């Protein structure tokens, strides 16, 4: 109000502040400063004029009829594995002219803990050594997020005994190398008070967000990676989890109540479309020409030739060593990322002697793919695997944990088709 609104409207009477003036003010603010600044000013003005309307100082709120502010397009950007390694080396080796040993250690510890726990920056600095014995465990490696650091205006920075939202209180499993970070810190502060912070300044006071950002900038001063902020690690975790298991797990890890915020602000969009579309759209391929009838001479030659019976399709696909030639090079990575099924688990299910073979797959539009339902001892689960033979090579197309229908088929030991399915 003092910095944005009053310099423009402080000498005007309420009746002189019209819809047009407010609209021009907000548009100029969005163009000259930023969308978020204009949105904040619009909120403050709306509240002020709403109060004036309730006290009959105005008949209408002029902010209500102003044009909608258009948020500029933005896209979440995650770090790559190569970027993370460069940052790790910079923190370890001290790249950056202003990076002191304290800077490097702080950034290294903060980067390691945030890179796999996806904690907010304030939450990453508030684990305590008192309850840390229960908040941080090594076997299994877990970290409990149950507080945050706040810096109220006019008051000292301190630990707040609850995180940003109720959903944010959670215990997350982390890789062992991440759990080593707070454990090393616990050793350093073993003689301190039970309420002592794990991460702290040289004066044993809480680290503010400005501390971490300044130290990160110092470490990355000479590194050719632009736009890296402490929040970049949180977006990276969300993106990696989404690629491996979907947005639900990413939202749960970040402490979001729904996936909407996670998708909009934290997950980097994946430009790749599921390659299974190529197999599905193959059904739209042009029909091959019908071969011409053989001449009498050709029929006579065929009658004299030795006739060798061709094996049935299933016999072509399956022998004593089931699917030893299945090729997962084109679809194995996608299957693991989308459904959590590795090629080893899929091959294990294909090798089940009690497998059920549905040829063609009852969901196939082209009639070329085959569905195999088998039990994987590796995954300890029934798995449905889709395979396709193309130009003499048997390709693995996809695989997932069997649905209710496929489980029933496997338990019954056979499949005779259902009413309405193509033969």
Automatic annotation (TrEMBL):
Residues 149-171 are annotated as: Disordered. Pfam families: Phage_integrase. Residues 74-279 form the Tyr recombinase domain. Keywords: DNA recombination, DNA-binding. The keyword Transmembrane helix does not apply. It comes from the Bacteria. Residues 155-167 have a biased composition (Basic residues). Gene3D superfamilies: 1.10.150.130, Intergrase catalytic core (1.10.443.10). Belongs to the 'phage' integrase family. This is Tyrosine-type recombinase/integrase. It comes from Pseudonocardia hispaniensis.
């Amino acid at each position: 109000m003092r910095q944005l609104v009053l310099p423009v409207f402080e000498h005007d009477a309420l009746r002189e502040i019209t819809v047009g003036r407010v609209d021009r003010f907000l548009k100029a603010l969005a163009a000259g400063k930023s969308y978020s600044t204009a949105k904040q000013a619009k909120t403050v003005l709306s509240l002020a004029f709403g109060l004036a309307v309730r006290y009959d100082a105005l008949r209408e709120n002029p902010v209500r009829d102003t044009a909608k502010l258009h948020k500029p397009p933005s896209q979440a950007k995650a770090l790559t594995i190569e970027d993370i390694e460069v940052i790790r080396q910079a923190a370890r080796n001290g790249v950056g002219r202003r990076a002191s040993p304290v800077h490097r250690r702080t950034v290294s510890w903060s980067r390691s803990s945030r890179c796999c726990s996806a904690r907010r920056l304030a939450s990453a600095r508030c684990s305590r050594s008192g309850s840390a014995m229960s908040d941080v465990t090594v076997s299994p490696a877990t970290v409990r997020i149950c507080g945050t650091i706040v810096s109220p205006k006019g008051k000292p920075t301190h630990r707040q005994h609850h995180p940003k939202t109720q959903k944010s209180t959670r215990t997350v499993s982390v890789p062992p190398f991440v759990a080593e970070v707070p454990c090393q810190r616990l050793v350093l502060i073993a003689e301190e008070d039970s309420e002592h912070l794990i991460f702290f300044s040289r004066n044993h006071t809480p680290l503010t967000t400005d501390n971490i950002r300044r130290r990160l900038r110092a470490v990355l001063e000479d590194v050719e990676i632009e736009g890296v902020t402490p929040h970049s690690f949180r977006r990276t975790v969300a993106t990696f989890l989404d690629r491996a298991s979907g947005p639900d797990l990413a939202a749960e890890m970040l402490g979001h109540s729904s996936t909407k915020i996670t998708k909009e602000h934290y997950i980097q969009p994946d430009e790749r479309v599921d390659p299974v579309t190529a197999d599905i759209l193959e059904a739209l391929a042009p029909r091959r020409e019908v071969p011409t009838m053989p001449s009498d001479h050709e029929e006579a030659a065929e009658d004299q030739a030795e006739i060798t019976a061709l094996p049935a399709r299933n016999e072509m696909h399956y022998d004593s060593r089931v699917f030893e030639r299945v090729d997962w090079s084109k679809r194995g990575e996608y299957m693991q990322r989308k459904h959590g099924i590795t090629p080893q688990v899929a091959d294990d299910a294909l090798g089940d002697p009690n497998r059920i073979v549905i040829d063609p797959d009852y969901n196939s539009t082209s009639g070329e793919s085959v569905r195999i339902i088998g039990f994987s001892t590796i995954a300890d689960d029934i798995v449905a695997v889709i395979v396709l033979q193309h130009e003499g090579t048997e390709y693995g197309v996809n695989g997932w944990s069997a649905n209710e229908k496929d489980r029933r088929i496997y338990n019954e030991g056979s499949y005779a088709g259902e009413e309405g399915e193509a033969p």
